[in-house]
Amino acid sequence: MSATRMMILGVVQWMQPVHGYDVRRELLNWDADKWANVKPGSIYHALRKLTEEELLREVATEQVGARPARTTYEITAKGAEEFMTLLRGNWWHLSTPPDPFMAAFSFLPVLPRPEASAALRSRAAQLQAGVERLREAQKADWFQTKPTFVSWMWELTIERSEAEIRWCERTAARIESDEPYLPTDDA
Predict the structure, then answer these.
(1) HEC profile of 146-171
(2) Per-residue pLDDT tens for 97-156?
(3) At what angle do helices 43-52 and 2-15 cross, to 10 degrees?
(4) Which positions ≥6 away from 8 have C-beta within 8 Å?
(5) Which of 66, 74, 101, 133 suits 58 as a labelling partner, its CA being 20 to 30 A distant?
(6) What is the longest distance spanned by two Cα atoms in the chain?
(7) Is 82 helix (H, G, I), strand (E, B) or coil?
(8) How many CB atoms lie within 10 A of CB 140?
(9) pLDDT score recorded for residue 185
(10) How many CB atoms lie within 10 A of CB 164?
(11) pLDDT, tens digit, 9 for 90 and up, residues 21-64
């Protein structure tokens, strides 16, 4: 939730005054649901909760025609302080998010070797496809209008993916060569 809190507080501070719909649209435009685990369905709930906690304030609620009412938000001084605390915490402290793949990999000996190596090679191929999509997107005209730091974020994603691709390929080769999974009692 802290990433979601930080992202919502930051977007409201950046775009204020802003409708909840625009906060949601902006975060989805950034694909924050993929890399920051911001769930699209939780954004309106988070806006209400942040308002209850006096980190945001409702500026106005308006309804145009038959459309649902839209509430406009601004960040409070307390909210701006909370945003900076979360922002600095995420900049200065290393946090490793839970990875379901690591949980599955801990049961490597349960899978037949051919399936385990095939799964790793498939993972590498999926990661490579993602790298290629990002590289192609970087060539698009619309990408040139994005802030420079967005390309730096994509660069980090590409480099992390390429490192994992190399690891998957290397580990698949180890599995295929019948390298033991567990230490032997030969000592």
Answers:
(1) CCHHHHHHHHHHHHHHHHHHHHHHHH
(2) 778 999 999 999 999 999 999 999 999 999 999 999 989 988 888 778 777 888 888 899
(3) 80
(4) 23, 27, 38, 43, 46, 47, 50
(5) 66
(6) 79
(7) helix
(8) 10
(9) 57
(10) 14
(11) 888 888 887 777 777 777 877 888 889 999 999 999 998 888 77
3-state SS, residue 25? helix
Apex CA 46: angle with CA 55 and CA 52, to 5°? Answer: 45
Q: Looking up tokens 């699209």, which residue turns up?
A: 40
Pick the closest to residue 154 from 129, 167, 137 (CA basis): 137
How crowded is residue 12: how many other Cβ atoms within 10 Å of its Cβ?
A: 28
**pLDDT at residue number 184:** 76
Q: Give the DSSP letter of residue 110.
A: G
Residue with tokens 């993916």: 161
Neighbours of 103 (CB within 10 A): 9
- Please tell me the distance from the alpha carbon of residue 179 to that of residue 109, in angstroms, as a whole number: 12
Give the contacts of 42 (CB within 8 A, at least 6 positions apart): 4
Q: In which element (H, E) is residue 130 found?
A: helix 113-139
Q: What phi and psi values does residue 179 have, to the nearest 5 degrees?
A: -60, 135
What separation in angstroms does the CA of 128 have from each of 154, 165, 186?
14, 7, 40
pTM: 0.73
Amino acid at 182: L
Q: Provide the residue count of the chain.
A: 187
Q: What is the pLDDT of residue 1?
A: 53
